[in-house]
Amino acid sequence: MIPFRKMHGLGNDFVVLDARAQPIPVSAKAAQAIGDRHFGIGFDQLISLEPAGPGADVFMRIVNPDGSEAGACGNATRCVASLVAEELGRDRVVVRTISGDLPVERLPNGLWRADMGEARLGWRDVPLAREMDTLHLDLALGPVSDPAACSMGNPHATFFVEDLAKIPVAEIGPQLEHHPLFPQRANIGFAHVLAPDRIRLVIWERGAGMTLACGSGACATIVNAARRGLTGRRATVELPGGPLEMEWRADGHVLMTGPVATAFRGELDLARYG
User: Does 73 participate in catalysis according to the annotation?
Assistant: First the structure.
């Protein structure tokens, strides 16, 4: 029996396994089964804590419900940082991912601020299938068109819309995620700018579908909105699960501030999931 924690950041939920003492081999098939919300535990991402090596306090591996590996997850970064900081008795830790090292610090009132790294804006960085201005992609489907794109360690495209209620996210999200323009697929954001410092956002996550919150998606949204001149470099991003405070610093790094929570702890019999 393998202990786990069920954690979430604004409803973006994770099964967290601690594989630092010994490896926990979870196949793509097992991840899919564990992620099933009816026959498994259910998660937006499966998180594995692993040894990091010099320069970081923990390595965080991120697996989607479809069994694919993700390069970044802002809400999970805060959750993992809170666990490790508590263990170490510190207010600042570094979480290593396949996309880079992410410093995270404890703030008052149960909040955690993560430096999600530098937004990468080149078409090869996203990546796109061909050379294109990432500020205005030649891409349209149904009621949406003209997104902006960037990489936050994973690919993002953000469509700016006037009325989120009129966007059939569950219908067009999968089509856009798998569009040939995105050779590694993409996270698709639908953003309504309410004010220069406030954005409402709905996300279709690559490999996970619609989620209540997406930290890297909020990062991409503030970057793309500021690039378009729709907002300043600081804004509150309102997601279905709650708000994140975002800042795109002058050095290109994106800071994300939000809460973390543990829903429950349990034990999982990995053999049951294949």
Answer: yes
